[in-house]
Amino acid sequence: MCELSDCLETLSSGYVLKFPEPIMRILLAAVVAACISATATFAAPDPAPVAANPVGDPKAASSDDGKYFDANGNPTYSIDKSDRVDWYTFSGYRRFNGSCEVCHGFDGSGSSFAPDLTQSLKTIGYNDFQNIVVNGKQDVNTAQSLVMPSFGENKNVMCYLDDIYVYLRARADRVQGSGRPAAHEDKPKTAIQNENDCMGP
Ligand code: HEC
Questions:
Q1: I need a surface site. Which of 51, 95, 118, 126 has the fewest CB within 10 A?
Q2: Residue 28 CB–ligand 1 contact under 6 Å
Q3: Which residue, judged by its Cα, is nearest atom 1 of ligand 1?
C-alpha cells in the first residue's frame, strides 16, 4: 500500500535529497505517479465475487441405470471399494485413448503440445468441457499456436462425450490411475440403446 503522504516523506528523507536537482525532479515525478496509480488501484470498487467452483463435488448423488450424477446433476464416476468402475468411466477410458490420446498423452497426462487434462479437469466443469470439445479452442496468446480441434461432427467423440468426461474427472480426482480400470460394471441397457441411436445403423 502506498499513500501520497508516505511518498512525500520518502522524498524529504536525506537519502533522496542527496541526488542532484534534475534527478530529484524525475524521481519526484516517478514516485508521485506510482503513488497515484497505486491509490487509484486501491480505490477501485471491489471485484465481482469469485464464482463457485464450476467442477463441484464429484460424489455420486443419484444414478439412473448405471449412470451416476453429482448433486448438481452433472455426470460423475462411481468406483467401488474393489476399484470396479461404472460402465461409463470404463467406456470413457477407451474412447479417450482412441480420439484424444494422440495429443493429450496416454490417459490424459499431457504432451509437449497439448495440456495435461488430469490437471485441467480440476477447474474445467462439465459445461465448459462440452463446449471446448464440441467447438474446439485456440490459444492465440502463446508464441506457439495451440489448437484444440472441434469434435462436434465426430460421432466417435460426441456419442461418448459424457463417458470421456467422467473418465477424465476420475483421473483429475486421482481416483482412477493411469491404465485400464481394473474392473467395470456391466454395460447398461440404456448405454446400448443410446449408442445405437447416436451412432446409427
Ligand atoms: C490435434 C491435437 C488434439 C486432439 C486430438 C485433442 N486435443 Fe484437446 N487440446 C489440444 C490443444 C493444443 C489444447 C490447448 C488449446 C488452448 O490452450 O487453446 C487442447 C485443449 C483441450 C482442453 C482444455 C484444456 C485447458 O486446460 O484449457 C480440453 C478439455 C480438451 N482439449 C479435451 C480434449 C478431448 C476430450 C479430446 C478428445 C475428444 C481432445 N481434447 C483431443 C489438442 C488436441
A1: 51
A2: no
A3: 103
